[in-house]
């Protein structure tokens, strides 16, 4: 075994968990957040009420009160040890960005003061030329702006020697286009609220002023010993293993799932939770996931905008805290071949400003009718805008996961369960439900019995499953921001609710009452959109064929999905709802194509480098030793035959790998020569990825043949099982 690998294994075996005292969660919760409770204590009473009202109504901050807020925020932050502030934003890199500025400012005569103005709070100006813009910004046009999003509270992130005030912000261009994922998300929330409130008014609800999507994203991740990972360039540069033979033991025994959490991992989890609690992020669940070395963290539901920010913070903290405990945290969708990858289940529901969950079936017939209207809107949204929802789950990493027996297929369908499906079938056909289930299928104020909350078992193969009072979008990749998925869901449901509100308002204006209008409209809507409902096995071979017969699209890869980003139905959805302009849609398509091609090219170049610098030289040395062994065992014919066969097998794999590596480098060169983003992405998918797969097959075969003492890369059994 190589000396570096030996040392890393010995060090990993000796690693011990950190010890410490966890703070009381209820006391520490939100202690590093400039929330309403802090504002109430630090702002003048009148100003606090005005600001709280602005935040509750989702309005913009009045610049006239910004100076007072900024001064209070600065004093609070400095009392907690902050020396700098930053506008924290989410560019189209898929990560977060920040530029730190000191509170300290020269005051003359060798003195300095701390200052932070309302203007500085509200707006910043980072360089926009080096962030992805899809052509909206050029390199020589550097100006871009950040603007405080007051609907998400500012917070403190602590470093080893100081702390920094983070101000959640929008990021937009000099010409006003969105350069981030937060602006379209806010627009989608507003669009959804407008249309949902229209429907609520039809049901006589005059008190709700706003409807907000609520989101609870589950976060899966892998932990790998950091010293072992440091010997794997593929893990460091791409977040996944580009080669590696399977471990003799993987997840076959199902013994890792929900098993006892290793002590070093538990120490890491507690450290992460302490940081999350201080930031007001309601972490609720932690456990071992299916694959060895895989774990999950899940929060309680929050408003979609806050949930998206908190999920980005959670991913940052997972990555940054892991090294303290001797780990590398992997947020790639498929870090290891042959075992489950990682997803991010996006649990989505709707809540009005009165606190009512609009996807809860309720306990009265009128509640049932309202629920059925919103259910019809979701079915219509998914059926008509499946392409838009598929775009919320794209990515080079997620392509390795979707459609495998660990994640839902790329076909976007809805799971309702047997009982609720029977309810809808009864509405469509005007027939009674099965005895003891739901009674007669009448709607509105007529005697439709209450629908139970747990209407069915869960279907883990469905990408969009109803789970009692919410929908779970299971196709999102674990490394992704949840903003794109929720933008697409919000936009599609807003569009569907708008259509429904238009029809109901027109029917009522023509003299029908609401109940009569619903009796006419809902059967038609459910009949039209029932093809999107599928309660069966999404992993089955028959489902893609059946889905095609139903007219449901199946965009198997990111590139295939992005080919439809510019389709009129997709583009017009975002434009019609005021979420993205045509230019912003085109820019995002270009950025996503470019990101895909770059991700694949980086993987290909990393693999080529590992092959040339590690695998091929080590296998060549093994071949030389095998040849010498053949020569010295001629005295025993049987042994000579065995040694000769082993040598020949090794030689064949080595020869094939050299040719495969040459082919990979040619595919990379051809992809880099592409004239446009779409061509580059297609070549990456059709040329580079198959070339990488051919290289991996030979390299993994060689790993099994080469003497373990000659193999310098840590193996799967070491990466997966040492914690």
Overall structural class, as computed from helix and strand content, comes to: alpha+beta
Residue ranges: pLDDT <50 for 5 or more in a row? 435-442, 445-449
Distance between the termini: 20 Å
C-alpha geometry: globular
**Average pLDDT, all residues:** 88
Q: How many separate domains?
A: 4
C-alpha-based Rg, rounded: 28 Å
H/I helix tally: 23
How large a portion of the residues is in β-strands, by DSSP E? 5-15%
Please tally the β strands and state the result.
19
- Helix proportion: 40-55%
Structural notes for this entry:
It is built from 23 helices and 19 strands. The longest helix is centred in the C-terminal third of the chain and has 51 residues, at 582-632. Residues 435-442 and 445-449 have low confidence and may be disordered. Helix 7 (182-202) runs parallel beside helix 15, helix 15 crosses helix 16 and helix 20 (582-632) packs parallel to helix 22. The protein is an alpha+beta fold and 723 residues long. Helix content is 48%, strand content 13%. The protein has four domains: 1-23 and 219-243 and 252-341, Glutamine synthetase/guanido kinase, catalytic domain (Creatine Kinase, Chain A, domain 2, 2-Layer Sandwich); 32-179, Ubiquitin-like (UB roll) (Roll), CATH 3.10.20; 181-218 and 343-551, no CATH class; 594-721, Four Helix Bundle (Hemerythrin (Met), subunit A) (Up-down Bundle).
């Amino acid at each position: 075994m190589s000396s570096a690998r030996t040392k890393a294994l010995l060090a990993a075996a000796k690693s011990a968990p950190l010890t410490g005292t966890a703070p009381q969660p209820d006391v520490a919760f939100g202690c590093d957040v400039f929330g309403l409770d802090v504002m109430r204590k630090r702002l003048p009473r009148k100003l606090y009420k005005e600001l709280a009202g602005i935040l509750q109504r989702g309005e913009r901050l009045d610049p006239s009160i910004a100076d007072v807020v900024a001064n209070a925020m600065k004093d609070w932050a400095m009392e907690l040890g902050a020396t700098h502030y930053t506008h924290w934003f989410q560019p189209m890199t898929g990560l977060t960005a920040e530029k730190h500025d000191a509170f300290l400012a020269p005051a003359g005569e060798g003195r300095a003061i701390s200052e932070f103005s309302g203007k500085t709070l509200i707006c910043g100006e980072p360089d926009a030329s080096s962030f992805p813009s899809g052509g909206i910004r050029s390199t020589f046009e550097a100006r871009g702006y950040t603007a405080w999003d007051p609907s998400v509270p500012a917070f403190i992130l602590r470093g080893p020697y100081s702390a920094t005030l983070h101000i959640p912000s929008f990021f937009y261009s000099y010409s006003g286009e969105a350069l981030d994922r937060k602006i379209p998300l806010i627009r989608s929330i507003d669009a959804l609220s407008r249309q949902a409130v229209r429907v609520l008014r039809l049901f006589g609800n005059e008190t709700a002023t706003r409807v907000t999507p609520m989101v609870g994203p589950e976060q899966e991740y892998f932990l790998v010993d950091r010293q072992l990972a440091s010997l794997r360039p593929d893990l460091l540069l791409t977040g996944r293993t580009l080669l590696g033979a399977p471990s003799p033991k993987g997840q076959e025994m199902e013994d890792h799932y929900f098993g006892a959490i290793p002590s070093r991992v538990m120490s890491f989890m507690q450290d992460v939770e302490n940081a999350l609690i201080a930031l007001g992020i309601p972490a609720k669940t932690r456990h071992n996931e299916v694959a060895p070395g895989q774990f999950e963290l899940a929060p309680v539901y929050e408003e979609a905008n806050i949930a998206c920010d908190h999920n980005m913070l959670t991913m940052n903290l997972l990555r940054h805290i892991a090294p303290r405990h001797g780990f590398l945290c992997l947020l790639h969708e498929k870090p290891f071949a042959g075992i489950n990858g990682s997803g991010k289940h996006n649990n989505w529901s709707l809540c009005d400003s009165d606190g009512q969950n609009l996807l809860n079936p309720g306990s009265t017939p009128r509640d049932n009718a309202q629920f059925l209207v919103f259910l019809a809107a979701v079915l219509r949204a998914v059926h008509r805008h499946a392409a838009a929802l598929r775009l919320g789950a794209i990515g080079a990493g997620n392509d390795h996961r979707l459609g495998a027996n660990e994640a839902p297929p790329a076909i976007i369908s809805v799971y309702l369960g047997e009982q609720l499906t029977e309810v809808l079938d009864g509405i469509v056909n005007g027939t009674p439900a099965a005895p003891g289930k739901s009674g007669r299928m009448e709607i509105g104020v007529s005697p439709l019995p209450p629908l139970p909350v747990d209407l069915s078992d869960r279907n883990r193969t469905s990408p969009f499953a109803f789970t009692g009072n919410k929908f779970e979008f299971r196709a999102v990749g674990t490394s992704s921001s949840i903003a794109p998925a929720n933008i697409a869901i919000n936009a599609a449901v807003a569009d569907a609710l708008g259509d429904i509100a238009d029809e109901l308002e027109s029917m009522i204006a023509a003299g029908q009452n609401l109940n009569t209008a619903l009796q006419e409209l809902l059967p038609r809507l459910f009949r039209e959109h029932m093809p999107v409902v599928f309660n069966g096995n999404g992993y089955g071979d028959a489902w893609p064929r059946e889905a095609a017969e139903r007219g449901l699209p199946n965009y198997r890869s990111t590139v295939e999905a992005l080919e439809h980003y510019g389709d009129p139905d997709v583009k017009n959805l975002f434009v019609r709802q005021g979420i993205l302009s045509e230019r912003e849609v085109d820019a995002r398509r270009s950025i996503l194509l470019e990101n895909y091609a770059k991700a694949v090219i980086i993987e290909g170049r990393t693999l080529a480098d590992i092959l040339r610098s590690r695998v091929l030289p080590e296998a060549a040395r093994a071949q030389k030793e095998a040849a010498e062994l053949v020569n010295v065992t001629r005295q025993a014919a049987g042994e000579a035959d065995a040694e000769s066969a082993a040598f020949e097998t090794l030689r064949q794999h080595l020869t094939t790998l050299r040719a495969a590596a040459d082919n990979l480098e040619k595919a990379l060169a051809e992809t880099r020569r592409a004239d446009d983003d779409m061509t580059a992405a297609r070549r990456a998918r059709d040329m580079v990825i198959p070339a990488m797969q051919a290289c991996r097959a030979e390299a993994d075969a060689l790993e099994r043949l080469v003497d373990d003492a000659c193999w310098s890369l840590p193996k799967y059994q070491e990466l997966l099982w040492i914690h």
